Amino acid sequence: MKSEQSNTSDLLSVSSQLLSEVNKELDARFMDLPEDVRALLVQKGALTQTVIRELTRLIELAADKAEQHEALLDHCAEWQREFFIPLKAQSDGEKLDNEIYLKDLEQMIEEVGRVLEEREV
After folding, report:
1. Are 83 and 108 in contact (CB under 8 A)?
2. Local structure of residue 80 (DSSP, 8 states)
3. Which runs of consecutive H residues, i.e. helices, occur in 30-101?
4. Helix 102-120 crosses helix 35-79 at what angle (to 10 degrees)?
5. What is the pTM of this model?
6. pLDDT of residue 116
7. Burial class (CB in 10 A: 0-12, 13-18, 19+), 80
8. Angle 38-44-50 from CA coordinates, rounded to 5°
9. Which residues contact 111 (CB under 8 A, 6 or more apart)?
10. Nearest Cα residue to 91 out of 74, 105, 77
11. What is the pLDDT of residue 6?
């Protein structure tokens, strides 16, 4: 994974440097270009900025979803530890210090319902 991040970092660095060089060349030659080509370059720049903004927004949404997913997995681990394993033990006839009650299961079902509703939003 480290190598993958390093490759991505190198790619971004090289790409940024090349883009900077291309932009400098375009700036140096901009006024020599025909007016219609200059207009197209300006439009391309505006569209590129729009695409970058939208990609950034989508990346942020994906990051939020990933955080929510991690939180849900943490919650599932807690449920397993605090509820499901003790419930199985209780069902197998083992004596527990804190018995599992139906109310606990109902609260979990409600919580899962809320999580699923949030997913649909």
Report:
1. yes
2. I
3. 35-79, 85-91
4. 170
5. 0.59
6. 82
7. exposed
8. 145
9. 75
10. 105
11. 72
Residue 100 is classified by DSSP as -
Burial class (CB in 10 A: 0-12, 13-18, 19+), 72: middle
Q: Coil, strand, or helix at residue 34?
A: coil
Q: How many CB atoms lie within 10 A of CB 75?
A: 14
Neighbours of 103 (CB within 10 A): 8
**Phi, psi (5° rounding) for residue 59?**
-65, -40
Distance CA 117, CA 114 (A): 5
Token readout for 5 is 């991040």
Structure tokens at 33: 């270009």
Task: Name, in order, each residue with C-beta under 8 angstroms of 33's C-beta and a sequence gap of 6 or more.
Answer: 41
| DSSP 8-state code for residue 110 | H
pLDDT (0 to 100) of residue 3: 66
**C-alpha 20 chain-centroid distance:** 28
